[in-house]
Design goal:
By secondary structure, this protein is mainly β. The protein has four helices and 55 strands. The strands form eleven sheets. The protein has a 25-stranded antiparallel beta sheet that branches. The longest helix has 9 residues. 36% of the residues are buried.
């Protein structure tokens, strides 16, 4: 659930987060090309048009070259094979949730055509304070069936904006009684300023508390709520696919796709002060100051905003092609060959989102655009290039280029009780980063690239052995082959003989860009299944994956390559047993995965000795082991019982040295760390669940489900797993191999129920009128629990920061289909 905002959720499979779970819609990969992440808020309307969802844990015979360590999820949408229908439904829920949906499916109409269309609108206030939701969704699919082929064009998207809770907090801020049970001295905690969120008088804030917003009293007497964490995005996806059945042995499938995403997330430039009474940001004082401050150095008419909301934008254009050919060589052997190519450009920048009462914002920090003039002497009177208005770029502006080429082949063999497969894939990932705000590169006459050397108005002089940059205040003169560079009007003079100058903006200059870096990858997977008889089967899968590192593990935010980049390696094995009877089915699976050099989630940053740093930790070795059991029993016609249990042992197995770099990527510190035997965080390693579906009469169902989670460890910063010394070099404590804090176990009870009434529309057709009513209650017992935690300095409940789960919620709805 994470912070509780709409779509701010994640999926974990077998200890792998969703960056390493392959997610597809109609066979098209959805994982972000840079980070592997999946943002579910971009797909709000997808559940309404889903026909089936396939979830494959672990290796299996997946036919794609995607790096899916935990498993693969493929969501298949409705289309021409579904019956003709018109559907409308409405839903209402707690905290103002409203959703309206309309869908249409033509089925097969004249000459093999078919159309599926849907639209939805959802709004709500959110269970957590100020996590409002404003979403649209659309879907259209047009299909044409020929004698031997099917052509499909589809488009879907979900433009949305929603408030977020981004800040993790100590447990005592959200629930004092729960914290006290964990051994937290809540009175002492509140007396010590409550982590900055509360006071001894105010105490706990409650589970719905969101510290990331505040009130503004506007000059017209109105009061508004302003979120300090807002997400807005639109990511339409266009697919054009062709399926061709050449004969009874050979088939082809090809899909071309395009996705264009626009949006980002807005946060405050500077963290506002907090009102001690409400616990929210003091924004009225910011608004009053912004709307009344005139700084005559920059403008005598516009008001200067000292604090604003800045949006981190993440736009992209992404297109690709996947094509497969399947050949049934014999009754026992099938062969498949395929290609997978993708091109991606991600554009990242920060822009002014809300000036909070003012007219402009000053971008005069060290991270400003180095390719703009500054000052009257550079053609910028009153530093006008510093002035940024709504929508202007500030702070950073860079592009990420990713190319992916993949080949895959698979053989499947079936004979009597045996079946087996062998899958081999190969891929190449090429990365490049371009930075528009860094100084420009210079290409010398011999082709040598001097990176990020000249900013606006500067010239780079070199004679091969000596070099110097003359900036806009230097005085440059020449006498024969001698160049004189005088620093200002009275500074020292530097002399270079036989030097050539390369100016900013000249033909020799280019936007700062890294070298293209290419990383190969390949996988090999094999497995076999044996049916012992009509009721029992056993299987085994083995696999090896050699995966390219993620983009953000190759380049840092300053356009430098990390000194050492390692391939990810995954060794995996799984063994399973299945049983199938008329009223009972069960599966038991055991798995073992050794994952070397697992890429971090992003460009890792930390605070060390009070200062921010980027650290170079190319990956942690990880062991994922576990056993799973699931069963389905139908003792009678009206009752169906489902159960599952999963026991994992997911740990890190790494040690070494971590290197910390400052903002200029200069090595500042290094320290030994060790994470051997430390459990992975924020993914419960024990899970038990059971449900009963009871149908007391035709069309009615009641389904309670209870799920229990245990052994959910806090996440950690590798910098914390180092020795800690005092100012004299004496060892205070050694945190190497120190286990993470273990959050309490918990269980949630959910209830789903509904009734469907069905009536034939007329006697001469199969069309029916279906009216349905449904309701669901999530966390019906209103249990308190922790979903996410991060270790504090003492590795305990007092210093850990957490997200706590949401309390009881409900939804009721009605649908009409004919």
């Amino acid at each position: 659930e994470q912070g509780g905002g709409a779509g701010d959720s994640r999926v974990n499979i077998r200890g792998a987060d969703q960056r390493n779970v392959g997610v597809m819609v109609d066979g098209v990969p959805m994982n972000d090309m840079e980070t592997g992440q999946v943002y579910w808020s971009n797909w709000d309307g997808l559940s309404d048009v889903t026909r089936t969802m396939q979830v494959q844990r672990g290796l299996g015979a997946s036919r794609l070259a995607i790096p899916s360590v935990g498993g693969t999820v493929n969501i298949l949408t409705r289309g021409i094979d579904d019956a003709p229908s018109v559907t409308a439904h409405v839903d209402f829920g707690n905290n103002g949730l409203q959703k309206t949906y309309f869908g249409f499916n033509s089925g097969v109409i004249g000459n093999g055509w078919g159309i599926t269309a849907a639209g939805a609108r959802q709004t709500g206030n959110g269970w957590v304070d100020q996590t409002w939701d404003d979403q649209w969704a659309y879907f259209i699919k047009v299909q044409k069936r020929f004698d031997k082929s099917l052509i499909t064009f589809s488009m879907n998207g979900a433009p949305q904006s929603h408030g977020q809770r981004y800040t993790v907090m100590p447990v005592a801020i959200l629930d004092s009684a729960y914290a006290a049970k964990l051994g937290v001295n809540v009175d002492s905690f509140y007396a010590a300023n409550g982590g900055g969120f509360t006071t001894h008088t105010q105490g706990e804030r409650g589970l719905r508390y969101n510290p990331d917003w505040g009130f503004i009293n506007y000059s017209d007497g109105q009061q508004g709520k302003v979120s300090g964490d807002v997400n807005f995005y639109n990511k339409p996806l266009f697919n054009l696919s062709w399926f061709y059945n050449a004969n009874d042995r050979l088939t082809f499938s090809t899909v071309a796709y395009l996705s264009h995403g626009y949006g980002g997330g807005a946060t405050f430039k500077n963290t506002p002060t907090r009102d001690t009474l409400s616990g929210q940001y003091n924004l009225t004082s910011i608004y009053n100051n912004n709307s009344s401050t005139i700084n005559p150095v920059y403008s005598t008419t516009e008001h200067y905003s000292s604090n604003v909301l800045l949006a981190a934008m993440n736009n992209h254009i992404w297109y690709g092609l996947m094509s497969t050919a399947t050949y049934r060589a014999s009754d026992n052997l099938s062969l498949m060959f395929g290609i997978d190519g993708r091109e991606y450009k991600g554009t990242h920048y920060r822009m002014v989102y809300d000036l909070l009462g003012g007219d402009y914002y000053l971008d005069n920090t060290a991270g400003r655009d180095q390719n703009q003039p500054v000052g009257t002497y550079m053609g910028d009177p009153n530093f006008q290039y510093y002035l940024k208005h709504k929508g202007d770029k500030v702070g950073y502006y860079n592009d990420s280029y990713v190319q992916w080429e993949g080949l895959f082949t698979q053989a499947e063999y079936v004979k009597k009780n045996w079946s087996a497969f062998l899958t081999v894939t190969g891929s190449a990932s090429q990365y490049q980063r371009v930075d528009h705000f860094k100084k420009q590169d210079i290409t010398l006459d011999d082709g040598t690239i001097v990176p990020m050397i000249v900013g606006y108005g500067e010239t780079y002089f070199t004679n091969g052995t000596q070099s110097e940059v003359a900036n806009y205040t230097d005085i440059v003169s020449q006498n024969g082959d001698t160049t004189f560079i005088k620093n200002g009007t009275s500074g020292p003079v530097d002399t270079l003989i036989g030097a050539k100058g390369y100016a900013w903006g000249s033909d020799a200059a280019r936007t700062a860009q890294t070298k293209k870096r290419t990383f190969p990858g390949f996988t090999i997977k094999t497995g076999a299944n044996y049916n012992l008889n009509d009721n029992f089967n056993v299987f085994m899968n083995l696999g090896y994956m050699n995966l390219a590192p993620r983009f953000n593990s190759v380049f840092d935010n300053n356009n430098h390559s990390y000194p050492a980049v390692h391939q990810q390696e995954v060794y995996a094995a799984e063994l399973g047993f299945g049983a199938r009877f008329e009223t009972f089915a069960a599966n038991v699976n055991a798995y073992y995965t050794n994952w070397l050099n697992k890429s971090p989630a992003g460009s890792p940053t930390t605070t060390y000795a009070g200062d921010p740093y980027t650290y170079d930790l190319q990956g942690l070795n990880t062991l994922l082991r576990g056993i799973e059991f699931d069963a389905n029993w139908k003792p009678c016609k009206k009752i169906q019982i489902e159960g599952l249990c999963s026991f994992g042992n997911w740990t890190y197995n790494s040690s070494g040295r971590v290197y910390l770099y400052d903002a200029n990527y200069v090595l500042a510190e290094s320290a030994d760390y060790s994470a051997k035997g430390i459990h992975l965080g924020n993914s419960a390693q024990t899970q038990l669940s059971g449900s009963i579906r009871w149908s007391p009469f035709k069309g009615c169902y009641i389904k309670p489900r209870y799920t229990y989670f245990a052994r959910n460890y806090a996440d950690f910063d590798p910098i914390m797993l180092t020795p800690v010394y005092d100012n004299n070099g004496n060892l205070l404590r050694d945190n190497r191999d120190r286990e993470s804090w273990l959050a309490p176990s918990y269980g949630t009870l959910d209830l789903n129920l509904g009734y469907n009434y069905e009536q034939a529309i007329d006697k001469d057709s199969n069309r029916k009128l279906n009216i349905g009513f449904r309701a669901s209650i999530v966390n019906i017992l209103n249990a308190s629990y922790i979903t996410d935690a991060r270790n504090g300095v003492n590795f305990d409940a007092t210093t850990a920061t957490v997200f706590m789960g949401m309390g009881r919620r409900f939804t009721v709805g009605m649908n009409v289909t004919f």
